[in-house]
Design brief:
Blueprint lengths: L8 H28 L3 E8 L4 E8 L2 E9 L3 H6 L3 H16 L9 E8 L5 E4 L2 H4 L1
Parallel strand pairs: 3-4
Antiparallel strand pairs: 1-2, 2-3, 4-5
């Protein structure tokens, strides 16, 4: 049907586009947050063989991988993290560490940054151990 709103590709495209830009905005806010704390941005949207890592920082000798999740509330954002996704991120993190001078002996952690509708950021440090 020409007026079938549910199947209108432009409407679904609008939602995807809005979500994409909201995600970019959340990533930029989280990046600024880490940089204010003294972290140095190494990579933005780095892609490994298993998937993408939103942000990668150096905190001294430690590498910090950050997955950013944006939703209306922090509780909703954390619900979007799946075991499968965490496994993909950890696999990609292994790829990244493989190129570091100390390789897999590099001190590293995976944080999850939750961003709510008001732009409030909540960090779950070392999330691979917390979730």
């Amino acid at each position: 049907m020409p007026f079938d709103v549910q199947n209108d590709p432009s409407r679904s495209g609008d939602v995807r586009c809005t979500n994409y830009h909201a995600g970019l905005s959340a990533e930029q806010a989280v990046s600024r947050h880490y940089q204010r704390q003294g972290a140095v941005l190494c990579e933005n949207r780095w892609r490994g063989r298993c998937g993408e890592i939103d942000l990668i920082f150096a905190e001294g000798d430690m590498i910090v991988f950050v997955e950013v999740k944006k939703s209306r509330t922090h509780a909703q954002a954390v619900q979007h993290i799946t075991t499968r996704q965490m496994a993909r991120i950890l696999c990609s993190a292994e790829d990244y560490l493989g190129a570091c001078p100390k390789g897999s002996l590099t001190e590293a952690r995976l944080d999850v940054a939750l961003v709510d509708a008001q732009g409030v950021i909540k960090i779950i440090p070392n999330a691979s151990m917390a979730l």
